[in-house]
Predict the 3D structure of the following.
Amino acid sequence: MFSGTTMMVPLRPCNGVSQYLSKSPMVHTKRQTTPRNVCMKAQTQAVPSRTQRIMESISVGGEVGGAGGAYSYSALKRLDKTWSSICSAQTVQQEPQQVVSDFPGVFSRSALAEKAVHKFDVIVCGGTLGIFIATALSAKGLKVSVVERNLLKGREQEWNISRKELMELVEAGILNENDIEDATVVSFNPNRCGFEKKGEIWVEDILNLGVLPVKLIEIVKKRFLALGGVIFEGCSVSGISIYDDAAVLQLAEGNILSSRLIIDAMGNFSPVVKQIRGGRKPDGVCLVVGSCARGFEDNSTSDVIYSSSSVKKVGNAEVQYFWEAFPAGSGPLDRTTYMFTYVNPQPDSPKLEELLENYWDLMPEYQGVSIDNLEILRVIYGIFPTYCESPLPAAFNRVLQVGDASGIQSPVSFGGFGSLTRHLGRLSNEQGFMKQSMEIFLTHTACPC
Ligand SMILES: Cc1cc2nc3c(=O)[nH]c(=O)nc-3n(C[C@H](O)[C@H](O)[C@H](O)COP(=O)(O)OP(=O)(O)OC[C@H]3O[C@@H](n4cnc5c(N)ncnc54)[C@H](O)[C@@H]3O)c2cc1C
């Protein structure tokens, strides 16, 4: 029943959405006595970093579950802690929890069968990109549900994408062209790829649209519900049991859902992927930090990728910085700039906060602005673990990976959403891989519905 520090109280399904309402947990505090040596304490307290001061001066909305959906300083510290544990681990991180288990025999004769409260053709775990594939499958007449541990909501920070990739959503029957127009909040041309002293190339119509995930996902969610889809929000996947005739999902909140196929769209840190990869340390990691800020007078073009420096030392590690920059949809002077680098995860690899400290010095120089003239609207950060063995081959009967969990995202452009749209046709069309998998499961198993 607990998610982080909030308690989830189950509500009845409403409009196809089963929700869990957040309630503050009871807090017991010990009576504090004022320390006599207050001045001494103040002197020894760590001075907040520039990153902390900047981030704590911005009011950020609620966090969402998908990659890059948290903007607070405390969420940055949490991600840095995860990153440090990846760096300090041996080749294999601690033994991952077993989430998926095989059970010989048929589900209908198992003890669990009586407890399954809902039955579906497909259950999609994770609702950021998961809602897109869920809608594509619902549109094909399948009974589909989505399980999302947070609210099923897109982030405020735009995704960059090319029109051709967006149109794949229309071709898959998930959106119409008006939806695309509604969710596209900015477009820009031309777009540069450049390396200092090596020259630059300017291109048109490549990653030149900004779509607003919060709008796009809202539209897709409505479509999914209208098609009869069911959403379990505030529900966390805790176990998957594979039988000869069914894949059964246990939620941390206690419900049991049965299906013929489970799609894992739980992102880079999916517990199922952790189990498949045996807790193996990533072969490489792309670290990204950046901000969306107001005050850029020169704001019509973009950098798809730009590097203005060679390898430099950060702490004990050597890194090369790359940049992305593009206009944001929130206002004509608003611009997003990302600084990213590729590292082997080692104990001396730089932390995200260290990269941000460098970013505040280097970004104004790169963009030809003064930081004093900028209003920082949002600070953004993320880590993209990558493995040589990608895309990830399917490891269990009846469980498939989609989105970042599948290892198909591009760490060069962070294009996880773009990657999904590029593969959506192949995944959901008549001859496609998802369709073939569905046919195998649907024709060879009795319907549990
Ligand atoms: C800084 C940054 C910039 C980016 N820019 C772009 C861009 O411009 N263009 C682009 O195409 N892509 C971009 N991306 C990548 C894009 O955000 C991701 O590829 C995309 O969010 C991946 O979606 P996903 O659903 O596969 O995984 P995630 O976004 O990680 O979502 C996984 C979902 O699963 C849920 N979940 C996790 N565990 C559980 C559980 N146990 N039970 C239930 N639910 C669970 C999470 O709450 C979450 O909603 C960027 C990413 C970052 C970090």
Observations:
- The longest strand covers residues 375-386.
- The domain at 100-187+212-280+390-444 is CATH 3.50.50.60 (FAD/NAD(P)-binding domain).
- Residues 65-68, 125-130, 147-150, 159-161, 236-237, 265-268, 271, 288, 380, 382, 403-405, 409, 414-418 surround flavin-adenine dinucleotide (CB under 6 Å).
